[in-house]
């Protein structure tokens, strides 16, 4: 197959997505290699933190290395210059008889940005920045880019509501609003993040497992953060312990809450501000605990407190084609003083799952 540059970069993006959930804190990266005549020779992605980068996996997939003469490499992120755990990709590419490297995003780290390009150019390889698909390329690496820029975990918020924005009826009944296909996509999304975050209310009401039952993530640790200011939750007997060890639970309480009653479970003490956890402090503690991306799946209280703190980076709103009238809105704890100050999604996309609709987009905070 002959691919155009656009097709090659689109394929590299698709390839990069395959590492979702396993590369943190590295970025998702995909790579495609075309022959001198633009025939597809190989492709690869960064599959696991600490293992080979996308470029190396793509090169390894090329059966006949003689075809690398004059080849074109398409990679979603500037090849790395530094010798980390896995060696510099730019230096490795520089030893090959390839003609060009086309990259999607510059390395956001100002200390290394441009260095990979420099190494390749010095080796006589043509290097080009690919201007198209910037939104898709940025989305692919969004956890990493935000970690680098704001030094905190990337926060996604998932809600499932009726079309009129309600998560529960007046009588409190809430399961299930969305259908099977939407719920199974949520299983996938959970796996794409370092941890799921939920509130005491959801544990009490639904007793969920909150793990990813998508088979891609069977081997993955199912870390869960539970927000419980007064330290009231007793984990013994809850279903969430059926699918993870105690060591994978982060129990977040106010500093004055007693840590008793939950042996083997790490307590994270976070100060409260007007009855709510200080979300900035919480996020920096989670980052220090090695969680670089979180998937918030909780009730209106938690959802509203992350939104009000200006700390939701991506929203996944699953909308069931149902109208339920009076009930509990998932933003009930959010107050917006004027329409100009309404929270706004950018780069929105919609997708259907059975009869349900998923609207996703980025929230941007300076
Ligand atoms: N449709 C959906 O997507 C979805 C997802 C999950 C849950 N739900 C539904 O949501 C309902 C429960 O709503 P909810 O609002 O009570 O649940 P929740 O947000 O899961 O839990 C709220 C509780 O968690 C603690 N908490 C959460 N964030 C906090 C913060 N920033 N600061 C301090 N404490 C914090 C507080 O505990 P204390 O009360 O101890 O102070 C708070 O009352 C259930 O009906 C459930 O089925 C819907």
Structural class: alpha/beta
Task: Report the biggest beta sheet as strand number plus sense, adding barrel if it closes.
Answer: 9 strands, mixed
Percentage of helical residues? 10-25%
Round the Cα radius of gyration to an integer and report it. Answer: 23 Å
Beta fraction of the residues? Answer: 15-25%
> Low-confidence parts lasting 5 or more residues at pLDDT below 50?
none
Overview in brief:
It contains ten helices and 18 strands.
Blueprint of the fold:
Elements: H1 5-17, E1 30-34, E2 40-45, H2 54-60, E3 72-77, H3 89-94, E4 100-105, H4 115-122, E5 126-129, H5 134-140, H6 142-150, E6 154-162, E7 166-169, H7 180-191, E8 195-199, H8 200-206, E9 224-227, E10 249-253, E11 266-269, E12 272-273, E13 276-277, H9 279-288, E14 293-296, H10 300-308, E15 314-320, E16 327-329, E17 346-353, E18 356-362
Parallel strand pairs: 3-4, 4-5, 6-14, 6-15, 8-9, 8-14, 9-10, 10-11
Antiparallel strand pairs: 1-2, 1-3, 7-16, 12-13, 15-18, 17-18
Bound molecules: NADP nicotinamide-adenine-dinucleotide phosphate.
Residues 159-161, 167-168, 172, 174, 177, 198-202, 205-206, 227-230, 232, 276-277, 297-302, 305 line the site of NADP nicotinamide-adenine-dinucleotide phosphate (NAP).
């Amino acid at each position: 197959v002959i691919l155009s540059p656009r097709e090659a970069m689109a394929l590299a993006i698709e390839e990069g997505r395959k590492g979702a959930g396993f590369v943190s804190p590295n970025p998702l990266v995909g790579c495609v290699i075309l022959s001198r005549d633009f025939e597809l020779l190989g492709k690869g992605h960064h599959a696991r933190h600490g293992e080979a980068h996308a470029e190396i996996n793509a090169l390894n997939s090329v059966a006949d290395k003689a075809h690398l003469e004059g080849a074109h490499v398409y990679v979603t992120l500037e090849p790395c210059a530094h010798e980390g755990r896995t060696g510099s990709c730019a230096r490795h590419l520089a030893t090959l008889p390839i003609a060009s490297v086309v990259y999607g995003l510059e390395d956001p780290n100002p200390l290394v940005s441009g260095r990979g390009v420099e190494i390749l150019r010095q080796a006589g390889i043509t290097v080009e920045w690919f201007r198209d698909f910037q939104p898709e390329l940025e989305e692919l690496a969004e956890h990493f880019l935000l970690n680098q820029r704001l030094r905190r975990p990337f926060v996604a918020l998932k809600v499932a509501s009726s079309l009129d924005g309600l998560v529960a009826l007046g009588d409190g009944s809430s399961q299930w609003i969305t259908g099977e296909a939407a719920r199974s996509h949520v299983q996938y999304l959970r796996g794409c993040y370092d941890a799921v975050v939920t509130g005491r209310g959801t544990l009490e009401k639904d007793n969920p497992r909150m793990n990813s039952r998508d088979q891609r993530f069977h081997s993955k640790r199912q870390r869960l953060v539970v927000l419980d200011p007064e330290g009231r939750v007793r984990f013994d007997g809850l279903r969430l312990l059926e699918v993870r060890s105690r060591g994978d639970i982060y129990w977040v309480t106010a500093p004055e809450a007693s840590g008793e009653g939950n042996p083997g479970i790490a307590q994270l003490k976070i100060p409260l501000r007007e009855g709510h956890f200080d979300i900035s402090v919480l996020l920096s503690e989670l980052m220090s605990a090695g969680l670089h991306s979180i998937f918030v799946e909780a009730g209106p209280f938690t959802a509203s407190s992350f939104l009000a703190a200006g700390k939701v980076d991506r929203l996944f709103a699953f909308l069931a084609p149902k109208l339920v009238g009076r009930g509990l809105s998932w933003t009930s704890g959010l107050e917006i003083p004027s329409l100009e100050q309404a929270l706004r999604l950018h780069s929105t996309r919609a997708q259907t799952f059975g009869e349900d609709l998923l609207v996703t987009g980025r929230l941007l905070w300076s």
